[in-house]
Amino acid sequence: MFKSIFRRGDLSKETNTQNSHLRVDIHAHLLPQLDDGPTDIEQSIEIIQEMYDIGYRKLILTPHVMSGYYNNTTEGILNSLQILKSTLLQQNIQMELEAAAEYYVEDNLFRLIERREVLTFGGSRQYLLFEVSFVSKVSCIIEAATKIRQAGYTPVLAHPERYISLQDKNIIERLILNGIIFQLNIGSLTGYYSKQAQEIAEFIISKNLAVFWGTDCHSYNQLQSIKQTFKLNIFQEAMKQNVLNNSLLGERLISYA
Question: Quick one: signal sequence residues (predicted)?
Answer without folding.
Answer: none
